[in-house]
Every structure is written in structure tokens, then in C-alpha cells.
Amino acid sequence: MKISVAGTGYVGLVTAVCLAEKGNIVTCLDIDMGKIALMQKGFSPIFEPKLEELMQKNRDNIVYTSDYIMAYRDADVIIIGVGTPEKKDGSANLKYVFEVAKQIAETVERDCIVIVKSTVPVGTNDKVEQIIKENRKCKVNIEVVSNPEFLSQGTAVQDTLNATRIVLGVESQKAESILKQMYSQFEIPFVITDRRSAEMIKYAANDFLALKISYINEMANLCEIVGANIEDVAKGMGMDPRIGDRFLNAGIGYGGSCFPKDTKALHWLASFNDYELKTVKAAIEVNENQKIKLIKKSKKYFDSFKGLNIAVLGLTFKPGTDDLRDAPSLVNIPLLIEDGANVKAWDPVGMDNFRKIYPDEIKYCNSIEETLIDTDICFIFTEWPEIKNFKLEKFTRLMKNPLVLDGRNCYSLDEAEKRGLIYESIGRRK
Ligand code: UGA
Questions:
Q1: How far is residue 130 from each of residues 107, 124, 143, measured CA to CA in Å?
Q2: Average pLDDT of the residues of the chain
Q3: Nearest CA among 416, 397, 414, 398 for reference residue 406
Q4: 86 - beta bridge partners?
Q5: Which of 118, 158, 209, when mutated, tests ligand 1's pocket best, judged by the most ligand atoms within 8 Å of its CB?
Q6: Closest residue to atom 17 of ligand 1, CA basis
Q7: Which reaction does it catalyse (predicted)?
Q8: CATH for the stretch 2-198
Q9: Which residue owns the Cα nearest ligand 1 atom 35?
Q10: Is the pLDDT of residue 369 over 90?
Q11: Cα–Cα separations (whole angstroms), residue 12 to 78, 137, 253, 331
């Protein structure tokens, strides 16, 4: 089976490499020649644990190219894994998906299956099918299948190889059996449904997880008011298998390339169809407020940040990735700078990307220690292991004023107190 994958971002590249790992021959296509050259040398253009290792291991099974004619012409399966970024109105920008569909239509010379793996609103697969029909050059049969992915950044490879389910939105028996064959080595249960339901599963799942986070964040806010501890509350809730113990970590809100975009896109889709998704709307609002929660807490100690030396630990939207998309750091740091603070920051992998946005406005440090020296406040935005395992006495020793505002509940309250820290976290009893 010849499989081609359009787009070498998280979805496309990880899918391609995992299919190769399971014995398939895969062609990876991207318009970015720089990325192609890098991948041809065996390097990954994205920071993702285990990915580069598998790219090198499966060198002989993967071809990297920017020649779409070569990639599509005689493929059995073409996977669309290009981005669907957010538009100003909150809807998903489908330009890249449709461009690939058009190129496929103009190129393929034999029957094939086109899989839409990008996260797309309900009805997009139908449009892809229509574009292909309208632009087809050869008289071939091209079937469109919805096959969303559920990988998380930082654990993308293992999430793909050991996925909880493979969702196939198919309109024919033939397409179903070809896809089952492609995934035959994965030993993962299938959910077979129609295309629109498959498209909906992806959004419904992501938005439910976002809701779960916003819910626990609101509970955390209430815990602070009424004097309860969110970690014990989450533990007590999570032991009920109907609720489940995952995605109940309170913090300064969700970020990343998916939850913020997918909640807005589903809300937009509902509104477009004259229906208001009230729960999703609330999740979005709660998240926006949660992101500035630490700044609000800091007002207890300082009226303004003017002239203060501030340490920031963690810039990425979560550990295990260098991705900054919708990270709380991007909301908070500009507020600190605008107010006249001197900001120093450290992140194990996110600093290069942050420097591209803020080259001169903040000082980038080589270690947590260097970041903390002589500071008045320390903000923690990402729970990197290096930060969680950092010795608390060093905060007291290095900072001018050991006020630590922790948005990810990295430390125990008792330990922080013992080490003399003025410590604020999320949803925990003081
Ligand atoms: C998310 C989903 O978890 C994946 O299943 C999905 O496939 C992916 O989006 C996608 O659509 O491509 P991802 O954005 O990589 O994956 O990261 P998550 O681990 O879900 O974290 C998202 C955000 O939620 C992070 O900012 C994280 O800090 C936050 N979070 C997560 C919490 O604040 N609390 C939690 O308990 C869990």
C-alpha cells in the first residue's frame, strides 16, 4: 500500500512515522523545502519526544518530498494532515485542506482513498469530496474518509501507537476495509461511523476535555473562597470512574494549538447554525479569566509591577513541548512588561520560540537559579520537571523577596511554608 501524507506538523509527521514504524511505506509531503531537507537528513522539524528516533529507525520506509505530483499520483491512500488555524471570527481556516484536495484531484491517476485527519468542522469532508469531484482530471474513484487523531503534544508518538480508539467516518464498505488494512498492525479498537459523526467526535472530545479543565478551575476558585483544597476535591471526584481522575488538574488555564481553537470553532459552528453552545462558551470565558489569575493574586502584595524584578519559570503551554501557542505566558508577560517590570525568564525548550516574539523585552536565563537572583516575584506558568524538582530553599536564598505565584501547583504547601516562601497557588487552602 502506498501511503502519502500531506503536511508534516504534529498530526501529519507523527502519523506518517508511526505508520512507517508499523511496516508501511510512507511519503511525507510539505511545501516547506527547508523542513524537507532537514527531515531527509533524519532530523525532526518539531520538538516531540521519540519522533526523531523513529524517523531515523524507519529511514528506509519514509520518503520526504515537496513534489506533490510524485506523492499523490499513484498513492493508495492520501492523508491530509495540514493545519486548520483559527480565523478572526473563531471559525477554522480550511484554506490549506481545500488546496490539498484540489491538488489531489488534479494529480491522482488511480483509485484511492483520501483521509481527512486535520481537525475540521462537520461537513468539511463533504466539501473535500465535492472539490475533488469538480477538479478531477482522470476518471478515477476517490473516496473521502474522516479519520481524526487524538494525540497530545509531548506524548504524540506513544498516543498514536497506543491510541484508545481509531475513529473511521466512512461512506462505503470498500473504504472501511482498506483503512482497516492500513491500521491492521495497530491492535486498537475501531469506532466505525459516518463522516459527519467522525468529524463531530473530534470536536466533542476536545471540547469536553476543555470543559473539564474549566470546571475544575472554577471549583479551585471556589475552594479558595470557601477554604477547601482543590487537590483533595479532585482526588475525591476522580475516583468515581464515571468522572475519571485525568484532566482534573487546576491551574492557570489550558493553552496549546487545540483546546482554545477547537472550543471557539465548535461554538462558532453552533452559532452559525443558530444554536448556542452554552457550556462551551462558559469554558472559553472561564479559561480567559483563569489565565490572569496570578496577576490578580499578586495585587495583594504589589499595586503595580513598575520597577519590580520578576522571574518567570516556564513559557510553553505545557511541559514536553516547545510550543507557545495560546500559552498563559503570552498573556501574562506582556502585562508585566507594559506595567514596567523587569522580566527574566527560563524554560528548558521554549526560549528560542519566545525570543522570536520578544527578542529584547525580557532577559533569557540559562538556569532557574540565574532567573531567580534578586527578584521580587516569581511566576510559574509551566510545570516542567526541572521546576517541580527545584529545591525550595533556593527561592528563599536567591530572591530578594521570596514571593512565588505558582500557576501549576508544583509544590506542597507545607514544604513552601517550611522554607519561608510566600507562596500562592491555585485552589489550595493557605
Ligand atoms: C489536546 C488533547 O488532549 C488531544 O487528545 C488532542 O488530540 C489534541 O489536543 C489535538 O486536538 O490535537 P494537547 O493540546 O497537545 O492535546 O495538550 P493537552 O495535554 O490536552 O493539554 C492542553 C492544555 O490543557 C495545556 O495547556 C495543559 O496545561 C492544560 N491542562 C491539561 C490543564 O490545565 N489541566 C489538566 O488537568 C490537563
A1: 16, 10, 11
A2: 96
A3: 416
A4: 92
A5: 209
A6: 152
A7: UDP-alpha-D-glucose + 2 NAD(+) + H2O = UDP-alpha-D-glucuronate + 2 NADH + 3 H(+)
A8: 3.40.50.720
A9: 247
A10: yes
A11: 11, 26, 27, 29
Question: What is the pLDDT confidence band of residue 277, given thresholds at 50, 70 and 90?
Answer: very high
Which residue has 447554525 as its cell numbers?
273
Nearest ligand 1 atom, CA 156? 15
Residue 18: active-site member: no
CATH number for the region 293-424 comes to: 3.40.50.720
Mutation choice for ligand 1 from 318, 329, 426, CB with most ligand atoms inside 8 A:
318
Q: Which atom of ligand 1 is nearest to the CA of 328?
A: 26
The amino acid that residue 341 corresponds to is A
Which residue's alpha carbon is nearest to atom 33 within ligand 1?
Answer: 254
Task: State the amino acid at position 309 in one-letter form.
Answer: N
Q: Residue 304: its pLDDT value, please?
A: 96
pTM (2 d.p.): 0.95
pLDDT at 294 over 90: yes
Mean pLDDT computed over 409-424: 96
Which triple of cell numbers denotes residue 88? 478572526
Q: Give the domain ranges of the chain.
A: 2-198, 293-424
Can you tell me the mean pLDDT for 315-327? Answer: 96
ipTM of the complex: 0.99
User: At 430, is the pLDDT very low, low, confident or very high (cuts 50, 70, 90)?
Assistant: low
Are 53 and 89 in contact by the 8 Å Cβ rule? The answer is no
- Report whether 419 belongs to an annotated binding site: no
* C-alpha distances out from residue 393 to 105, 372, 402, Å: 63, 12, 10
CA of 289 to the centre of ligand 1 (A): 18
How many A from CA of 216 to the centre of ligand 1?
A: 14
Query: pLDDT tens-digit profile of 125-174?
Result: 999 999 999 999 999 999 999 999 999 999 999 999 999 999 999 999 99
Q: Which atom of ligand 1 is nearest to the CA of 321?
A: 15
Name the closest-CA residue to atom 3, ligand 1: 152
Atom of ligand 1 nearest to the CA of 11: 12
